[in-house]
């Protein structure tokens, strides 16, 4: 039984045996800031496409702008993502080589095809919306893009959790759920900000309600995921400088500030527009910072042999 499946009282204590002279047992992942940016954009784009599809189907003429901007955000994220990954891979043909073979047991392989499908379907959906295509046919283009967007929301978390990196593996399967909740919070924030700037406050209010729900879900899932990592003795990088301060800042920006701003709007209605914009910007900044912390804290945890051996020692029980 794996440590993450055990009751807290039965999970293994910090490993106290040999550690190969203190050398790391696994190699830290070679990912850089490009991948952190991609993690943010993949969730933002995937959720934006889903929100756009729902707005197009059920929002009527009033929510047409939300649908259009959602498709645009999704397309921009879908086209930027591959560029970021190729920059991180250093060799462009490596991305092409990933598409030569389909391995259903490989999150990286599944992710490559998910990204490719999302880029293609989102581009087609946005192009159809911008053209003179009959509006009744738009759902035929939106549905495949939304399905691929759902894959974009969760596959990065599944891919990270399937590695041997202690911090990420210890949070499975909550890492995918956490990224999905964050994606909806970001998409709602981005679209609400656009609607607010254009004076469409009724649309913005509906999006903000979705954003608050997603933010609360994100906060709850994040706390549970972090508790799992701490119970598995894999979260020590989150308590070390400089990531400790960044981790706390990401929580404040992604959760505390947006929720406080939305609560204050009832007390200060004259400042509602400004508070909405602050909440949206804070949500986006907090999510981006959280992905950066996730990436580099994971890399740091792979350099800690006791964290890895605690996790694997528990897995063997």
Tell me what the structure shows:
This protein is mainly alpha-helical and 317 residues long. 73% of the residues lie in helices and 0% in strands. The chain is built from eleven helices and no strands. The chain has helices at residues 33-58, 64-89, 93-98, 107-130, 138-161, 166-169, 174-197, 201-231, 243-267, 272-302, 305-315. The N and C termini lie close together (6 Å). The model has no long low-confidence stretch (mean pLDDT 87).
Strand-helix topology:
Elements: H1 33-58, H2 64-89, H3 93-98, H4 107-130, H5 138-161, H6 166-169, H7 174-197, H8 201-231, H9 243-267, H10 272-302, H11 305-315
Helix pairs in contact: 1-2, 1-5, 1-7, 1-10, 2-4, 2-7, 4-5, 5-7, 7-8, 7-10, 8-9, 9-10
Overview in brief:
By secondary structure, this protein is an all-alpha fold. The chain contains eleven helices and no strands.
Total strand segments: 0
C-alpha-based Rg, rounded: 21 Å
Low-confidence stretches: none
Topology as H/E string? HHHHHHHHHHH
Question: Counting H and I runs of at least 4 residues, what is the number of helices?
Answer: 11
- Termini Cα gap: 6 Å
Rounded mean pLDDT is 87
Sheet of most strands: none
Question: What portion of residues belong to β-strands?
Answer: under 5%
Shape: globular
Approximate helicity band: over 70%
Structural class: mainly alpha
């Amino acid at each position: 039984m794996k440590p993450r499946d055990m009751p807290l009282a039965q999970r293994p204590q910090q490993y106290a045996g040999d550690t190969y002279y203190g050398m790391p047992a696994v190699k830290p992942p070679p990912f850089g800031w490009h991948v952190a940016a991609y993690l943010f954009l993949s969730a933002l784009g995937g959720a934006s496409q889903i929100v756009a599809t729902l707005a197009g189907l059920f929002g009527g003429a009033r929510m047409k702008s939300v649908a259009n901007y959602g498709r645009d955000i999704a397309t921009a994220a879908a086209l930027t993502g591959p560029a970021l990954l190729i920059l991180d891979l250093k060799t462009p043909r490596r991305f092409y080589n990933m598409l030569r073979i389909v391995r259903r047991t490989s999150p990286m392989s599944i992710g490559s095809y998910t990204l490719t499908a999302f880029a293609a379907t989102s581009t087609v959906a946005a192009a159809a919306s911008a053209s003179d295509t009959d509006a009744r046919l738009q759902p035929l283009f939106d549905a495949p893009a939304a399905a691929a967007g759902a894959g974009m929301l969760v596959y990065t978390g599944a891919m990270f959790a399937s590695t041997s990196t202690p911090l990420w593996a210890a949070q499975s399967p909550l890492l995918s759920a956490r990224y999905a909740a964050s994606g909806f919070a970001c998409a709602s924030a981005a679209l609400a900000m656009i609607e607010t700037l254009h004076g469409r406050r009724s649309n913005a209010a509906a999006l903000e309600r979705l954003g608050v729900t997603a933010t609360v879900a994100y906060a709850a899932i994040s706390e549970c995921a972090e508790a799992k990592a701490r119970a598995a003795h894999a979260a020590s990088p989150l308590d070390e400088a400089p990531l400790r301060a960044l981790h706390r800042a990401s929580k404040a920006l992604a959760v505390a500030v947006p929720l406080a701003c939305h609560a204050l709007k009832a007390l200060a209605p004259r400042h509602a527009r400004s508070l909405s914009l602050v909440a949206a910007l804070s949500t986006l900044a907090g999510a981006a910072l959280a992905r950066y912390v996730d990436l580099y804290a994971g890399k740091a945890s792979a350099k800690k042999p006791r964290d890895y051996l605690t996790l694997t020692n528990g897995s063997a029980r």
